[in-house]
Amino acid sequence: MKRFVYTYMQNPADTDDVTQEVFITVYEKLPEFQGRSMLRSWIYAIAANKCKDHLRKWNLRNRRLKEKMFGHFPILRNNPDTPEEAAIKQHAASQLLERVLSLPVKYREVIVLYYFHDLSVKEIGEMLHEKEGTVRTRLDRAREKLRALLSEERSERDG
Asked: Is residue 103 a contact partner of residue 149, using CB atoms and an 8 Å limit?
């Protein structure tokens, strides 16, 4: 849970605060949980909403997410790449991450949840209170936007 909150907050102190708020809210609202979704999705939804509220309140949503994502985009740890290969992979990963972060929030959050947190379309839908079809559409549109951004970048670089 804390790692998930950190993906939003990009700051250890804020992560601790929001994580604590999430667990307090879960404790207080547990009797209201109706079981229409998985408990995990319900808790993640609470966490996402608490994070969004906190970021909205401090008006730091984009800056903190960028700081966190750039600081924690790992190169494959068990890969015996040469330093040059690792640097090339890190550069490519940073460019891709930069493009993901440039997407509108509704596309960025589904990409982060799907690819970085391995949540299913169903879980993301429950968490965001959206239909599965809406989540799939957002994922497809986000991928299209990323493809366009990357091909535009290649065109500029090559031509």
From this structure: no
Q: pLDDT for 18-54, tens place per residue?
A: 999 999 999 999 988 888 888 888 898 899 889 888 8
Average pLDDT over residues 92-114: 81
Nearest to 106 by CA among 141, 132, 75, 82: 141
Q: Residue type for 63, please?
A: R
Question: What mean pLDDT is reported for the chain?
Answer: 80
Tell me the three-class secondary structure of the chain, residue by residue.
CHHHHHHHHCCHHHHHHHHHHHHHHHHHHHHHCCCCCCHHHHHHHHHHHHHHHHHHHHCCHHHHHHHHHHHCCCCCCCCCCCHHHHHHHHHHHHHHHHHHHHCCHHHHHHHHHHHHCCCCHHHHHHHHCCCHHHHHHHHHHHHHHHHHHHHHHHHHHHC
Q: Residue 83 CB: number of other CB atoms within 10 A?
A: 7
The pTM assigned to this predicted structure is 0.51
